[in-house]
Design a protein that fits this description.
2 domains, seven-stranded mixed β-sheet, 291 residues, alpha/beta, Rossmann fold, 7 strands, single chain, 13 helices
């Protein structure tokens, strides 16, 4: 997916917000000086003006992130936000487990839980009620290619690659991984970017040991930008019969990668909504299309 005009303002604002995050997840009133902030934002504006709009918004953000980290003086400006999302999901996992135990269709319920977890985000000023989203997800219709198409693809797949999104979401991914019941590579980022899951987060979420083989994409970028991934990861990617891609950034970076990719997400962006043909707020299962 290319970067659209409306994406530029979002990318700029997200960069500004990241520089102002402090350790407890609130905004700084001090820390990044006005001079440093101004200098960095001017560099970001210049980079956005010169970047190829054929790149995805996620790719743009990957290019901007080093400037943000340098200005903020930290390698992981979203660390507190990421860990807070993980903590919220972990605190609710027993309730999620009880939902699974009561379900008449555990695969359907687990898929809905996995998609509901996609609401855990880093959008400034926006709050979420995870349990409220979960309850809504259990009743809401799923847009796109449908749960049965996804269920059939999972049943016939021999090798599955699961592309993680945010750290808290990994807790809810666990239930779907359990229902799939096949060998799975669960792919996380090689280092911190936004609130995306890292190896440590996936282990904390309970996805290690015998449940899944946790692997790194070899990339510290949102989504899955194949040219930034390691040869080891690309070997796994190419060998997979089925790729489960969580979240909007994975859609942005893999939207033309073919029918073996299934995108699972909650639509939060009007640009994404326009691209997929559904409304903001919809739960979505979308099978990939050829490039």
């Amino acid at each position: 997916m290319r970067t659209f005009p409306a994406c530029y303002a979002c990318l700029f604002q997200q960069s500004l917000n990241a520089m102002r995050l402090c350790e407890n997840g609130h905004y700084r009133t001090a820390g990044v000086t006005l001079e440093r902030e101004t200098t960095t934002l001017r560099k970001i504006l210049s980079m956005l003006a010169e970047a190829d709009p054929a790149l995805s918004p996620a790719h743009m953000l990957a290019l901007l992130n080093p400037y943000v980290c340098q200005a903020a003086g930290v390698d992981d400006p979203y660390r507190a936000v990421r860990l807070a999302g993980l903590e919220v999901a972990l605190a609710s996992q027993q309730g999620f487990r009880e939902l699974m135990e009561k379900s008449s269709d555990p695969f359907d319920t687990a898929t809905r839980l996995a998609i509901a977890g996609n609401i855990i985000d880093v959008i400034p000023g926006q709050t979420y009620d995870l349990w409220g989203v979960v309850r809504q997800a259990l009743e809401q219709s799923i847009a796109g290619d449908g749960i049965e198409n996804f269920r059939s693809a999972v049943a016939s797949a021999k090798s599955i690659l699961y592309l993680a999104d945010n750290a808290g979401e990994a807790v809810l991914d666990r239930f779907l991984v359990e229902q799939i019941g096949k060998p799975i590579h669960y792919a996380v980022k090689s280092g911190p970017i936004l609130n995306d899951a890292t190896l440590e987060d996936a282990v904390t979420a309970g996805l290690g040991a015998t449940l899944a083989q946790i692997v790194s994409t070899g990339s510290q970028a949102p989504g899955t930008i194949l040219e930034m991934c390691s040869p080891e990861f690309l070997e796994i990617y190419r060998a997979a019969d089925l790729i489960i891609a969580k979240g909007q950034a994975n859609y942005e970076t893999l939207d033309t990668q073919g029918e073996r990719v299934f995108f699972l997400m909650k639509i939060k962006c009007p640009i994404i909504a326009q691209q997929v043909g559904f409304e903001v707020g919809n739960l979505l299962i979308l099978q990939g299309r050829p490039g």
